[in-house]
Design goal:
The protein is mainly beta. It has helices at residues 37-41, 183-188, 461-464, 517-521; strands spanning 8-11, 14-19, 49-57, 60-70, 73-80, 92-106, 112-115, 119-122, 131-135, 141-145, 152-159, 165-170, 210-212, 219-227, 236-244, 254-256, 258-262, 279-288, 297-298, 301-302, 320-329, 332-333, 342-346, 351-361, 365-377, 381-390, 394-407, 413-416, 422-423, 430-435, 439-443, 449-455, 471-475, 481-496, 501-512. The strands form 5 sheets. Strands 1, 2, 21, 22, 24, 25, 26, 28, 29, 31, 32 and 35 form a 12-stranded antiparallel beta sheet that branches. Strands 3, 4, 5, 6, 11, 14, 17, 18 and 23 form a 9-stranded antiparallel beta sheet that branches. A hairpin with a 3-residue loop joins strand 25 and strand 26. The chain is globular.
């Protein structure tokens, strides 16, 4: 799918030291926000932050923490309990997206016209407003007329195992839904056979923008953006059943529960919108998917261990058992409703999640207690702090306090303060922009998005950093993800005793640069 381009900023601080618990608070008495020229560039407008809970089925949930970052965009990061696609009770930072907020109308609204044989089906509690429409008759269409001043349009529907491919047009133009793939894109990706193309006897033109709703596992409330940069006005959107499908699908059905739009003014803190099912966050761009994690990763080697010293331990890396997750807004405990894409909104306030877990070693067992705190601030982004207390002695030679995976298809430039700009496209596992720096960042040279890692309490960086660089960007092989690391040790022995406390303190931010990210961030 063709997607917009996003830039993620991470500000990170890692303080790992063998100081006893009695001295912990001496490190972080003063509140600290990201500072410096680069950090200032990433500051959000400060309008609102929010949280919503996505039901993943089987009692599992993902908590999306979202911050308004400008124009029509929200940056949302997931506290996901699906580590690397496997259901779990361990929430951790696992996915990062740019999303657009819209207001929905259901399939029975007067602005929607259904042409053909669209069956109405009840699915109470699982789909938007309890009903959906479906058709598998080629040329049937659902047409919707948006409100005045609309700049963003999309559909709410189902992804399911018997769905097919529909053609989407905007104002009669079958190429205007530019956030969808073309039919040719899906053929080139081998998602669809070339037989679906008109030239080969099929029903799709190569340039048609198409919605493929097939999924092996059903998701019954899927908001899909068609276009987020239309000229402000009233627009006509048509979704037409093509009669085509990918081979794995059991039918060619199209599914809709409604449409949604925005004029760019909708916000999570708008009066009367808290918890509204008419609000929907639609994915615009994936900054990082479920192929990697953000958080600490350490190879603990407790005394007595012999075969498990190379096991990675950490939130998202296994050997980590969550015991509690507490969510608060301005200090008050909240329990977001478990319902797909229904938002619980807290305009202009801080959202915080505190996660407590036990880390273990395969041979020794319990090695200590981890407390991770995630605070989303409306201006300064996501502040992540962790504190680990050792129950046993031991050592390590590899310890990373923070990581920022970067979508290789988006982030093609990067730097750290003190290093020259580098190109991220060699895909050879080299480490670039190594520097004893408080700040690492990346951006799309041809787009509007960028990303940065900022180390909190930067004056302490030399006391914990034991390698040749404090921050480094790995230009990873495979062409999918790159990664920015904040290191403690990388091949150097670092021992600890029972009662030792290690701490991590870092910031993640995302910036939208309307005039282009390269002009704002290159050569800084």
């Amino acid at each position: 799918m063709t997607r917009g381009i996003v830039f993620v900023l991470v500000l990170a601080v890692l303080t790992l030291s063998a100081f006893p618990q009695s001295r912990l608070l001496t490190f972080f008495r003063k509140r600290s926000f990201p500072t410096g020229p680069i950090a200032v560039k990433f500051r959000a407008p400060g309008r609102d932050v929010g949280i919503f809970r996505e039901d993943r089925g089987s009692g599992s949930s993902t908590y999306w923490l979202c911050e308004f970052i400008g124009d029509t965009y929200y940056w949302c990061v997931a506290l996901d309990d699906y580590p690397l696609g496997v259901p779990s009770d361990n929430h951790h930072l696992q996915q990062s997206e740019i999303r657009v907020l819209g207001t929905s109308v259901d399939q029975e609204d007067a602005s929607v016209t259904l042409n053909g044989t669209w069956a109405k089906v009840s699915d109470a509690g699982l789909v938007y407003l309890d009903y959906y429409r479906r058709s598998n008759t080629a040329t049937d269409y659902a047409e919707w007329t948006s409100p005045a001043s609309t700049t963003v349009v999309g559909v709410r529907g189902l992804d399911i195992s018997n769905a097919g491919v529909s053609v989407v047009s905007i104002d009669g133009d079958a190429t205007a839904a530019d956030l969808l793939p073309t039919a040719q894109d899906l053929v080139d990706a081998t998602t669809l056979s070339s037989d679906v193309l008109v030239a080969n006897g099929g029903n799709l033109n190569p340039t048609d923008r198409v919605l493929n709703q097939y999924a092996a596992v059903a998701d019954k409330d899927v908001p899909t953006l068609f276009n987020s940069s239309l000229t402000a006005g009233q627009h006509t959107v048509r979704l037409t059943v093509s009669g085509e499908k990918q081979a794995a699908s059991g039918d060619t059905r199209a599914y809709i529960t409604g449409f949604f739009s925005s004029d760019g003014t909708q916000r999570m803190d708008s009066a009367g919108t808290s918890g509204s099912t008419d609000l929907v966050m639609a994915q615009h761009t994936i900054l990082m998917d479920e192929q990697s994690t953000y958080e600490y990763a350490i190879q603990f080697c407790p005394t007595g261990a012999t075969t498990s010293c190379t096991d990675w331990v950490g939130n998202g890396h296994d050997h980590d058992t969550e015991s509690s997750l507490a969510i608060t807004v301005d200090g008050a405990a909240v329990t977001p409703a478990e319902d797909a894409y229904v938002m619980t909104v807290y305009g202009g306030r801080k959202v915080r999640a505190v996660r407590t877990s036990t880390l273990d070693n395969a041979e020794v067992g319990d090695i200590g207690t981890m407390v991770a705190t995630y605070t989303l601030h409306p201006t300064y982004g996501l502040h992540t702090q962790w504190r680990f207390t050792f129950d046993v002695p031991g050592g390590t030679t590899f310890a990373y306090g923070a990581m920022l995976p970067l979508n290789d298809g988006i982030f093609d430039k990067g730097s750290t303060v003190g290093a020259s700009d580098v190109t991220l496209g060699d895909d050879d596992d080299t480490h670039k922009a190594n520097a004893e720096s408080s700040t690492g960042y990346a951006w799309d040279a041809d787009g509007n998005w960028g990303a940065m890692l900022w180390i909190n309490q930067a004056k302490t960086v030399y006391s914990w950093q034991k390698t040749t660089s404090a921050l480094t960007i790995e230009d990873r092989s495979g062409g999918t993800l790159n990664k920015l690391y904040a290191r403690r040790v990388d091949g150097v022995a670092d021992d600890y005793v029972s009662g030792t406390v290690w701490r991590g303190d870092y910031w993640y931010q995302v910036g939208y640069f309307s005039g282009g990210a390269n002009g704002e961030l290159a050569n800084q």
